Amino acid sequence: MRRKPITRRRSPIAPLVAVTAGEPAGIGPDLCVALARARLPARVVIVADREMLRERARALHARVSIADFEAGAAERSRASLTVLHVPLVHRAVAGRLNPGNSPSVLRTLDVAADGCRDGMFDAMVTAPVHKSAINDAGIAFTGHTEYLAARTGAPHVVMMLVGGGMRVALATTHLALKDVPREITRAGLERTLRVLHADLLARFGIARPRIAVAGLNPHAGESGYLGREEIEVITPVLERLRAQGYRLAGPVPADTLFTPARLELADCALAMYHDQGLPVLKHAAFGGGVNVTLGLPIIRTSVDHGTALELAGTGKADAGSLIEAVKLAAQLARSAAMARKNHSPQRHRDTEK
What we know:
Blueprint: E1 16-20, H1 28-34, E2 43-48, H2 50-59, E3 66-68, E4 81-85, H3 102-118, E5 123-126, H4 131-136, H5 144-152, E6 158-163, E7 166-170, H6 180-183, H7 186-202, E8 210-214, H8 229-242, E9 247-252, H9 254-257, H10 260-263, E10 268-271, H11 274-285, E11 290-294, E12 300-303, H12 320-342, H13 345-352
Parallel strand pairs: 1-2, 1-5, 2-4, 3-4, 5-12, 7-10, 8-9, 8-10
Antiparallel strand pairs: 6-7, 6-11, 11-12
């Protein structure tokens, strides 16, 4: 049964952002502790086990005060970290995976996503999880993107990374390379481009988005000699959407799509698979890139890196990507609030006077 939405005064200046700590044995808790010292354009609530955060702060020799989150009271707290407590099943040990904690990890995602959907939070940011640990617990899990789509009932989501002056979205996400061609269909590619176009408009405030679309094969198929996906799937979709006013370039060979001259002509690039587009962006922005899930009914951003078990508890983890993820989440939340205000019934009534 759906919970009754929580009524809360929204602030366009300081959105309320839920941050999940991710894998307890990884650097996620370290990064959350680091947020206590960061200057952020948002009020932050860490969704995690409070004792785990206290232990990690002691290991890092970080002076952190923690207060429990109460809806409507976060902005009054003087603690350096506000925490919505989700207890772990087992005590976390930095650098040592324990699949038994996987249900708690997923519970933090549920709490944050439900809080965004119900209006308690303006956005959520996720620290990295360890997919194999969750699967070792007997829980089918392919990634945050797919999990949050199922949790929120989103019919089609798109993974996009932002950083280094680029936005790179993906037509497919976490698939074996051998499975990619059959997953690129006309219907799926069209849904992806529609979601991408809509969120560039609504969440990023780009009035007429320009999207450069990569081909799947080398040289974009070389007129069919290196593959026919461009001829049979990608080009027909682009032509159909161009006829509806979409500004689309492609299919462009991936080895030339990411040149500076080409990127200057696009607001976003759409790669056909994970390792076609993301190595370029991560080369330009690793440690400061942000993962955004488009097509959700909520705002979700994340870091651009993994759990780095070997760095957990050492003080060597760089919080730059998590800080940028919080900043972008706050920016998108403010844009969403402005869009709601501009399209409110009261505004339309005032305009008609």
